[in-house]
Amino acid sequence: MLSGTRHAPRLITLWITWLLAMLFHVDLGLMPLFHGQSPEIESHVPSSALPLLFGAMLGYFLLPLIAIVLIAYADTAAAPAKRWRPWRRIHFWFSVVYSITNLPHLIADIVVPDARPDQIVLMLALTGFGLLINLEGWRWWRQNA
Fold first, then answer.
1. Mutual orientation of helices 50-76 and 85-111 as an angle, nearest 10°?
2. CA–CA gap between residue 63 and residue 118 (Å, rounded)
3. Cβ–Cβ < 8 Å for 76, 6
4. For residue 128, what pLDDT is reported?
5. Is 0.70 surpassed by the pTM of this model?
6. pLDDT reported for residue 145
7. What are φ and ψ of residue 44, in 5° steps?
8. DSSP annotation string for the chain
9. With contact defined as beta carbons under 8 Å apart, do 95 and 130 qualify?
10. Nearby residues of 21 by Cβ (< 8 Å), 6 or more positions away
11. CA dist list (Å): 81 to 41, 67, 92, 101, 140
12. CA angle at residue 79 from 97 to 83, to 5 degrees?
């Protein structure tokens, strides 16, 4: 691997792409509203658990934003790169967790009887972006090891 490769800008771009795809996934799910149809799906979550679910989703969106900021700081820090090495390792494993959590969602979108092809394509793209984040995160962690 070339030591001059700048993985941090790649990771920032990939995470932003991933977040935009996540937002588009939600947006596509709501598109029926604009055509007089209901986007409602049958929920198996009790109403009392919804605040916990909403909090989890908030965290799921906020953590990549925090990762982007930390990647930018790590890439532009005057301190030696070795100081940020633990963050590089944490980031890699963090990205793996996100990829793993996307897989059940992708599978669920595929096996749902009334699955929409646009949502499946978008989840495939999200999974692909996640795997690219894993690869780039691995390279960033191992750079100058």
1. 140
2. 26
3. no
4. 96
5. yes
6. 60
7. -110, 15
8. --TT--HHHHHHHHHHHHHHHHHHHHHHHHGGGGGT--------S-GGGHHHHHHHHHHHHHHHHHHHHHHHHHHH-SS-GGGGHHHHHHHHHHHHHHHHHHHHHHHHHHHSTT--HHHHHHHHHHHHHHHHHHHHHHHHHHTT-
9. yes
10. 122, 125, 126, 129
11. 47, 17, 16, 30, 11
12. 40
Please say whether the beta carbons of 17 and 129 come within 8 A.
yes
d(CA 66, CA 60): 11
Residue 133 and residue 98 in contact, taking contact as beta carbons nearer than 8 Å: yes
Q: In the chain, which stretches have pLDDT less than 50?
A: 1-2
Distance CA 68, CA 72 (A): 6
pLDDT of residue 40: 72
118 vs 115: CA distance, rounded Å: 9
pLDDT, tens digit, 9 for 90 and up, residues 94-116: 999 999 999 998 998 899 887 88
So what's the pLDDT on residue 60?
94
